[in-house]
Amino acid sequence: MFLKTIIREYYKRKPLEEPPSLHKREIALESLEDSAYIRHLSFAFMDQLYNYILSVKTPLHLYYSSALYSNPSAQLMEEKLWEGSELLFDIDADKYPECASKLYICTSGELLGSNAEKCPNGSRPLEYTNVSWSCIIKAWNSAVKLVEILHSELGFRDIKLYFSGNRGFHVKVADDHALTLSRDERRVIAGYVSCEDLKAERLFPTVKNTVVFSTSEYGLRRRVLNEALRRGKAVFREKAYGLRKVYLLNIEDLSEILRDECVDIDKAVTMDTSRLSRFNYSLNMKSGLRVTSLDLNRSIEDRAYKDFSPFTGTVKVKPTITGTLEALDERVELVKGEVIRVDAYLGVYLVVKNVAVPVDTSDLGVKA
Description:
alpha+beta, Ribosomal Protein L9, domain 1, 11 helices
């Protein structure tokens, strides 16, 4: 009832951004009431959608299709009659090796270290992953780089960037010529930005373990040269190896630069022409934070998880475990059964992670 109340209170404010051509989108949600994944919904107007999520099913997660369909409510995909799909990219911070610290939680109240396979009572523990804000910033930098590649090298213009409301970012391309790209074409684009199957020896041939660049490079070679110059690794020569006005880069430095210039994306998301996408400003109830569109000109380095929460004030919660937990970049000391008061955004997070239950929510507020 706590989650149902705050979710519906949030959506009563009608915060969602309406996607273009709503009537051609399949709408889907995961229901709080029964954990059912409900698909093949269709609404001609946003008011109809709000009526559904406020009176029929409460969404833990709310999606619309990246695809446009003539008949979006059809149960079979081939009967939906596909008209085109936005081009999507997904970047998650927990994909970086140093950004996926895990703990294991026992329903009996124990908080275990990493690699725990069994609780003291013999049951299987629940996995808990913490992602620091510094890792979110790392994913942000990758997302910004991705947008630059899509714009400068692939010529896309209608590009939007979103915080997923949990641990990563979504990039969405809606140019008209992107809508009709085939799965194979999307696979090629995914391979380009991620450098999948890159044959470096062909794109960056060497002379005596040195890569030679001209002053007029394009694409990935231009990107690598610019980064090499920024790092002070590329050396200009008026003449070298029979060529004039070139930059030289050691092959060992090339490998390091390539690791940073290739963007790690979930390729399956980009290739999928029927992928579902979260509504902008919907709640992501894996965390209690909201999906938020971002301005590329404003860095998120001075922001924090709490800035993406619509919940204000404080709540009292009763932990169901004992131990020290890193939660939304906050260090929280929990003692099973011992009531604590925390900021609302943190309290909601602890509840959705099943490590606490709400006790007093009288000071909790909701904003659009």
